[in-house]
Amino acid sequence: MHNNIYSTRNTQTITKMGLFLAIIIATGFFSIPLPFIGVPIVIQNMSIMLSGGFLGKKYGFITNAIFLFLVFIGFPLLAGGRGGAAVFLSPSFGFFIGYLLCPIVIGFILERNTKKSFVVTFLAYLIGGALFINIMGSFSIAYYSHTSLINGLKSITVFLPLDIVKAIIAAIIHQRLQHLTLNGIKND
Questions:
Q1: What is the pLDDT of residues 36-53, one digit of tens each?
Q2: E strands within the chain?
Q3: Total-model pTM
Q4: Crossing angle of the two packed helices 132-145 and 44-72, in degrees rounded to 10
Q5: Which of 20, 144, 167, 177 has the fewest CB within 10 Å, making it most exposed?
Q6: Spelled out in words, what is the top-level CATH class assigned to the domain 2-181?
Q7: Which residues are CB-contacts of 25 (< 8 A; sequence separation ≥ 6)?
């Protein structure tokens, strides 16, 4: 009986990871190019954030790592149909590091949200998603623009208003669907 429960839980977890991987890929079809800094405005990062919120630290990280691995080996899954190892040698690289690590930050904050407060949920997506991803991106923008980190940080301010809205939307989605999707996955 114990093995059957463990097997069912694994199947549910893998299914949820696959679903989030599909959502991340599907949201990559939408982007607004910003040629002046070489990084587009995307909604894909909101689904990256949500993977951390719904799958937790461990499984969100693994799901995002699988996504980035598929991009690395050449699948054109990033916003604008980009893919391949070359995109990891571009101003977007820091954002990819943020994508990989944001589930850890979001999952950590949400684990402590025992009262399931909207404000704490929003702060998890704001800090672990919008701010963390953009701060990580500022490093590669500064590096590839041959400028200071301060200028790299200034460059990401163009993303912040929309990313704050994405954090609000992610928190609303999380609050509305939390009881449906967190069932069966322990946030490791």
A1: 666 677 889 999 999 999
A2: 31-32, 41-42
A3: 0.86
A4: 50
A5: 177
A6: mainly alpha
A7: 67, 77
